[in-house]
Design a protein that fits this description.
This protein is α/β, with parallel strands linked by helices. The chain is built from 11 helices and 13 strands. The protein binds nicotinamide-adenine-dinucleotide (NAD) and thymidine-5'-diphospho-beta-D-xylose. Thymidine-5'-diphospho-beta-D-xylose binds next to helix 6 and strand 8.
Length: 333
């Protein structure tokens, strides 16, 4: 696999993946990205110019995606509308990009026989009760809650249908919540870090007891590369790093790291349909493909991420006010 097409490669996880691939292999990468509000050209700075190309375009542009698929050995499909809160206020773009966009990618892979890896989320499984010891596995039934997760669930079903009906050479991964550099300030961890850096208070939905299973984006990238290289066609792999924390624990860690009182946060209006708990059992990926995460623990990864945001204010500052204004309009500020 020498020529890799990365859709959504100017977004948070996609750009981390591009850095990962170019830093560890001699492959070349084409990023196909629409450069929505969530994208950042700067996230691709510092890469070897002769091995990376950016095509600004839409994954739902069938002729464009078909042409690009014919010029590459593999497609890694990250492009998506990714924020649950946005899917509740305006679901249309989630249907268009996450479903129609994935359909276009599948048709292009089918036409050219291109290897495809589809990036998905643990949210397709719905949520677990807070006191349920179970974790999601590849056998957990789909039960998505939000327009975002329902559209991602639909995209996974399309991939499986194209594998079975048309022999498309695809794999799927469903990963837990990512954190790390270049994540948009609308998301939980960057929002709270930047609120505190601004002298403000973290904004926690509901009672703050909801649990997420955190993984560093670098570990997500290494898992995706492992699956692309050694995963079995037609298989799904869950990706997770045993990082369960409730939201209150996370904001307290951020506040303490930045020298503030651990109770210096606000509880705000809850998210509609807010999933209670996600938890990933990644035994299949670890046992079958030998993958392990490289970040020793969430506390270390979070501390590095806080420092990254402290050092990159010029990157996040331009989007911060508009993001907070949108939250204020929904009573979540
Ligand atoms: P993001 O919002 O940071 O980035 C998405 C990227 O896709 C942006 O660069 C955007 O410009 C691009 N994009 C959006 N619509 C497009 C279109 N129509 N055509 C071309 N490009 C388009 O998202 P992210 O958090 O990096 O998530 C990337 C992928 O990983 C998504 O598929 C998401 O469902 C999945 N995922 C995310 C997480 C997480 O915690 N963030 C966890 C599991 C899975
Ligand atoms: O201000 C906030 N306060 C708050 O309490 C925000 C933005 C979020 N939250 C809560 C909601 C969730 O319980 O924090 C948790 C994490 O929220 P998000 O960062 O919005 O992530 P989540 O909804 O869990 O979805 C994320 O993980 C799975 C990604 O955005 C998805 O793309 C991915 O599929």
């Amino acid at each position: 696999m020498q020529r890799i097409l990365v859709t959504g490669g100017a977004g948070f996880i996609g750009s981390n993946f591009v850095h990962h691939v170019l830093g560890r292999t001699d492959a070349s990468v084409t990023v196909l990205d629409k450069l929505t509000y969530a994208a950042s050209r700067e996230s691709l700075d510092g890469l070897p110019e002769d091995r990376v190309d950016l095509v600004v375009g839409d994954v739902a542009d069938q002729p464009l995606v078909e042409r690009l698929a014919g010029e590459h050995d593999a497609i890694v499909h990250f492009a998506a509308e990714s924020h649950n809160d946005n899917s509740l206020s305006e679901p249309g773009p989630f249907i268009q990009t996450n479903l129609v966009g994935t359909f276009c990618v599948l048709e292009a892979a089918r036409r050219h026989g291109t290897r495809l890896h589809h990036i998905s989320t643990d949210e397709v499984y719905g949520d677990l009760e807070l006191d349920d010891p179970a974790r999601f596995t590849e056998a957990t039934p789909y039960n998505p809650s939000s327009p975002y997760s329902a559209a991602k669930a639909g995209s996974d079903h399309l991939v499986r249908a194209w594998v079975r009906s048309f022999g498309v050479q695809a794999t799927i991964s469903n990963c837990s919540n990512n954190y790390g550099p270049w994540q948009h300030v609308e998301k939980f961890i960057p929002r709270q870090i930047t609120n505190v850096l601004d002298g403000g208070r973290p904004k926690v939905y509901g009672a703050g007891t909801n649990v997420r299973d955190w993984i560093h984006a670098e570990d997500h990238s290494s898992a995706v590369w492992t699956i692309l290289e050694r995963g079995r066609i037609g298989e799904t792999y869950l990706i997770g790093a045993d990082g369960e924390r409730n939201n209150l624990e996370v904001v307290r860690m951020i506040l303490e790291h930045l020298g503030r009182d651990a109770d210096d946060f606000d509880l705000v209006t809850d998210r509609a349909g807010h999933d209670l708990r996600y938890a990933i059992d990644s035994s299949k990926l670890r046992a079958e493909l030998g993958w392990t995460p490289s970040f020793p623990d969430f506390a270390t990864g979070l501390a590095r991420t806080i420092e990254w945001y402290r050092d990159h204010e010029s990157w996040w500052r331009p989007g911060k006010d508009a993001t907070e204004a949108a939250y204020a309009a929904k009573g979540q500020a």
